[in-house]
Amino acid sequence: MEISFQINPSLDVHDLIDVLEKSSLGLRRPLHDLEAMEQMLVHANVYIGAYEGTKLVGLARAMTDFVYTTYLADLAVDEAYQQRGIGKQLIRELKNYVPKAKLILLSAPAAEGYYPKIGMQKHPHCYFIDDVQEIN
Question: The whole model's pTM is what?
Answer without folding.
Answer: 0.90
